[in-house]
Amino acid sequence: MNTEQLTRMLPDERLRSFLRQDVWLHAAERGMSWQEAVKDREAAAIAINRLSAYASDTLKMIVLRFGAEPVAEEKLIQALRDYTRMAGAESRIGVKQLESAGFLFAVQKLWGEKIYWIPSDCYTVWQNALFPFALSPVISSARPLAGASGIREPFGRRILYLLAALAKGDASFTAKGLLSKKTAAKLDEALLLDESKLTVFPLDWANKDHYSLKTAFALTVSSELGLLRKEEGGLALHTERMEAWLALAEEARERELQDRLGGMLFRWVGADALFGSILMGASGGSWYSITEAEKLIAGLTDSMHERAMRGQVESAASRLGMSEWTHLFHELGWMELAEADVEGQAVQIFRWRAFPRENTPEDLIVQPNGEIWAPPGCGYAARWELELLGERVNAEEPLLYRLSAAAVSNALEQGRTKGDIERFLQTAGGGELSVHVRALLREWTGKACRFSFEEVTLLRCDSDEMAGHAKSLAELAPRLIEQIGERDFIVESSSVSEIRRLLQKSGYPPRKGIGGVKAAAASYPSFLSAHERAGAEEVRAEQDAISNERASWLLEPIVLRHYQLVQNAQDDPEVVLLPGIERVPAAWWREMRSYHASTRKEFMQQAVSLETAVQLRLNGEIRSFVPEQVEQRGQEWAVTGRMIAGDRPERSRLTPDMWEEMKLVLPSGIGS
Question: Cα angle at 359 between 354 and 365, to 5 degrees?
Answer without folding.
Answer: 95
